[in-house]
Design a protein that fits this description.
The structure is a single chain. The protein is an all-beta fold. It has one domain: Glycosyl hydrolase domain, family 43 (Tachylectin-2, Chain A, 5 Propeller). Helix content is about 0%, strand content about 40%. It contains one helix and 15 strands; from the N terminus they run ββββββββββββαβββ. The protein has one helix at about 155-160; strands spanning about 1-5, 10-15, 15-20, 25-30, 45-50, 55-60, 70-75, 90-95, 105-110, 115-125, 130-140, 145, 165-175, 180-185, 200-205. The strands form five sheets. A four-stranded antiparallel β-sheet has the order 5-6-7-8, with no helix packed on it. The chain has a four-stranded antiparallel β-sheet with strand order 9-10-11-12, with no helix packed on it.
Length: about 210
């Protein structure tokens, strides 16, 4: 999955490319975007996760905020090869908290111990000090989902890392020993006039329990 620009609308959308080798070359699939919610301003930030039965699901963000509306996070099952959509799209969450400023994006889900799912996401303007990571709980990958708090889950004060600000873009992975890790980005230079211009760092932190 990769970001693409729709030639007809100029909107940001989601595309698919495949390759026989991890280092490429990659070839686009289809003659248009894989997912593009034109009535919501477009679609970005794809994340693929596997449910407990082994099925694939695509998570993404609609671009409603580009038109002055709260953005939302979505989920839809994929075909077994990951190259097609199956079933219908489900809205998981909508930006409604004041700290989010109409923007939630970068969804990533991990299984919860009780059979549900933890949904991480980023909120607010990506280049502002208010940018942070939120957390919601979903009964299934089709929703419904609910915020775990009225505040962000991961913020600049929580980092305890001098010079690092506005954590977002969180994804997860397992290492070879079975430890679950979060990987996310931060800004590492002071903002100017309320916006960051330089530069970004990659951070790692273990997730102790899901």
């Amino acid at each position: 999955m990769l970001p693409v620009t729709d030639a007809r609308s100029g909107q940001q959308c989601i595309g698919v490319a495949t390759s026989d080798a991890a280092d490429g070359p990659y070839v686009g699939v289809g003659d248009g975007p894989f997912v593009c919610q034109h009535d919501l301003g477009g679609s970005i930030d794809p994340s693929v996760t596997r449910n407990r039965a082994g099925g694939l699901h695509l998570l993404w963000k609609d671009e409603g905020n580009t038109g002055g509306h709260p953005s939302g996070l979505w989920s839809q099952p994929l075909t077994a090869d990951g190259l097609g959509l199956a079933g219908r799209a489900h809205r998981l969450l909508t930006a409604r908290r004041a700290w989010q400023e109409n923007i939630i994006e970068e969804p990533a889900a991990i299984p919860a111990a009780d059979g549900g799912w933890w949904l991480f996401y980023s909120g607010s303007q990506f280049d502002a000090p208010t940018y942070a990571t939120g957390l919601a709980y979903c009964r299934t990958l089709e929703g419904p989902c609910r915020e775990t708090s009225g505040r962000p889950f991961l913020t600049t004060p929580v980092l305890h890392e001098p010079g690092q600000s506005a954590p977002g873009g969180l994804e997860t992975f397992h290492d070879g020993r079975g430890t679950l890790w979060a990987v996310f980005d931060t800004w590492n230079r002071p903002e100017r006039n309320g916006r960051f211009r330089c530069c970004r760092s990659l951070q790692l932190a273990p997730i102790l329990a899901a």
